[in-house]
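Service request form, structural biology core

Requester: graduate student, group of Dr. S.
Request type: structure prediction, single chain
Budget code: on file
Notes: please return the result as structure tokens.

Sequence provided:
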Amino acid sequence: MRFLITAGPTREMIDAVRYLSNLSSGRTGIDVAAAARDAGHTVALVLGPTPLSPPDGIDVLRVVSARDMRDAVMAELEAADVLIMSAAVADYRPQSVHPGKLKKGEGNLTLELVRNPDILLEAGDRKGDRIHLGFALEVQDAELHARRKLERKRLDALVLNGPENLAADRSAFRILTPEGLGPPEEMPKAELGRRLVALAEELAANRGTRS
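Core staff response, request fulfilled:
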């Protein structure tokens, strides 16, 4: 099968030197990509800005912004059998980008933010028989928000985790499917990668996805 995986943060530029981003390192998505490669699958990895090196033997598409990531995912989506969206995509971006370096003034600075495209929602509208796995980093009412995301974005499964997983080597999580929420688990992210590849394989086999 062909896996399409996203990883890392996005950067939303404020001016020529400043940006909005988050603490994601991209480790989870990189480990998922390595696990899919090791399982004999073809892999395309859409990778946001990260100092980590992607695995050898896969196609790597490097992106910066959420809109860059959206364009790369949509270009690769039709050829994929499995989509795993582990990237921490910025929900908002500055409405305008200052062409130079924004100078410090005497008072406060207000940034107007606009919504970024919802990549997973758009991909869900084009899902077909593809397997889609997503992630939800939640704090308040975590299970409620995760279930809403699973349903709205037409996901086959979702990894529910918290902010303690950002830039960490291990992951604490629960897996949510339409059948219910699994028990709490904790493991190295490399092991989580293998777990998610096996889950995608199982879901594909049960659905009869093309191979």
